[in-house]
Amino acid sequence: MTQDPTTVAEDLNDLIGFVDASPTPYHAVATAAALLDHAGFTALDPIEDWGPEAAGPAYVVRDGALVAWCPGRRSDPAAPLRMIGAHTDSPGLRVRPRPDRSTAGWRQLGVELYGGALRNSWVDRDLGLAGRVAVRRDDAVELRRFRTDGAVMRVPQLAIHLDRDVNTTGLVLNAQQHLTPVWGLGDASDGDFRAWLAALVGVEPSAVVAWEALAYDVQPSAVIGAERDMLAAPRLDDLAGCWAALTAVRHAASVMDPPELPTVVVLNDHEEVGSQTATGADGAWVEQVLERRVDALGGTRTDLLRSLTGSLLVSVDMAHATHPNYPERHEPGHWIRPGGGPVIKHNVNARYATESTGAAAFRAACDRAGVPVQEYSHRGDLPCGSTIGPITASRLAVDTVDVGAPMLSMHSARELMAVADITSLPTALQAI
Questions:
Q1: H-helix or E-strand spanning residue 242
Q2: Domain 92-217 maps to which CATH number in 3.40.250.10, 3.90.25.10, 2.30.250.10, 1.10.357.140?
Q3: How many C-beta atoms surround the C-beta of residue 421 within 10 A?
């Protein structure tokens, strides 16, 4: 595939802007909503009745999740869907409900490890805080997003003079003991964090009811390499997938000749912790949204079930590129190259949902788009990760294929991918 340099540059800047604006799932869906607003999509209230505007292009947000859709040439309620799924969350550190503590003159914040993070990648990094806070306003509760302008804390590593064997035996970090960030000097008092957060969002401490506060690496995304052909960034798993899905649905809504079938984008939260939440893939929310869309089109639940039976879901998560320093950790015959195009992910134990029907459909789309495609299979003696694909496939009974863009350092605080793969992925999705 020969890529247009202008398109690649535009996509690169677009992805960087999306990632850097989205340190948390709540920021990610707000950024996504702004992109959809600009593209002419209508925001629907998740509680109110939906009228004709629900035919699309439209979207609905709930917490850190979003569902968006645009019509195709087929407009009947039972029309099959071109579905693209991704997730907004990433592994990391989240502040506890009562986080204030101190040791030996250092003020610290109690945190809990979220998901399967590479723990060492959070050590000795300048970390900011972002998330949302529930604020009491009279008899109601208002949710507000927040984000620090810069770093406010750091997880300090033990000096080599106190751990002489670290370079030979490896760094072992206990999630309870060794990942507590330092964020000030002196002795902590109960309520310090609440008061700090209240000042950040401009309310009295007594008005702060609860929070979801996440650590994030304040270093912005960077284009690196001798040829400037790599992107180093946080949260590529799976904000790169979210961005690719949003790019595809915005394209479907903008072209003069729309696709035959409606396009639906699902951005779930909580994939990294099992998806069993109201806005996770294992919850009922997506199905409810799809049923309400069909209802607004004048259809029935039977129409929805007919639609799903004929639909295809492309579950977009990132894929393991073959690590140049650890090639033996990868399955022979299935090495994945950076810049080699999107990756179809296979696992016979259904950790990925790909079956032959979905794989064939995605490969055909890549052929139509002139995009190369790669095939990933995990080593049999290593546990395999998973995605929203198998969960959504089982909940909605929809044919599914798991795909992604190749990357290194998955689940690190900072990850790495090829610039060329940024454009390849949405190009393939647009051809589904």
A1: helix 236-254
A2: 2.30.250.10
A3: 26
pLDDT band of residue 5 (cuts 50, 70, 90) is confident
Q: Distance between CA 100 and CA 191 in Å, rounded?
A: 7
Q: How far apart are CA 272 and CA 89, in angstroms?
A: 7
Strand partners, 109: 100
pTM: 0.96
**Chain-centre distance for alpha carbon 50:** 27
Q: Which CATH fold topology does 5-90+234-430 show?
A: Aminopeptidase (3.40.630)
Task: Say how far apart CA 158 and CA 346 lie, in whole Å.
Answer: 40
| Burial of 166 (C-beta count, 10 Å sphere; 0-12/13-18/19+) | middle
- Those residues whose C-beta lies under 8 Å from the C-beta of residue 342, and which sit 6 or more positions away, are 319, 362, 366, 371, 373, 374, 403, 404, 405, 421, 424, 425, 428
Backbone angles phi, psi at 128, to 5 degrees: -100, 180
Predicted local confidence at residue 3, as pLDDT: 86
Dist. CA 112–CA 93, nearest whole Å = 6
